[in-house]
Design a protein that fits this description.
Elements: E1 7-10, E2 20-25, E3 29-34, E4 40-44, H1 45-51, E5 52-54
Length: 55
């Protein structure tokens, strides 16, 4: 479903104000990198499904 280097938009923005994330790693957990500030977070794929606004 999700691919590497794919940009996804979340409903709520990150602390830096950006709501776009680049997928860095896939699997059971996804590693996401903020497009603006390059902060990296880990999130379960089902949790991202709830928070996603647009692919």
């Amino acid at each position: 479903m999700y691919e590497l280097k794919q940009i996804v938009k979340t409903k709520k923005p990150h602390v830096c104000g950006c709501n776009e994330w680049k997928i860095v790693r896939t699997g059971a957990d996804l590693k996401l990198e903020c497009v603006k500030c390059q902060r990296v977070i880990m999130m379960a794929s089902y949790e991202l499904d709830k928070r996603i606004k647009k692919v």
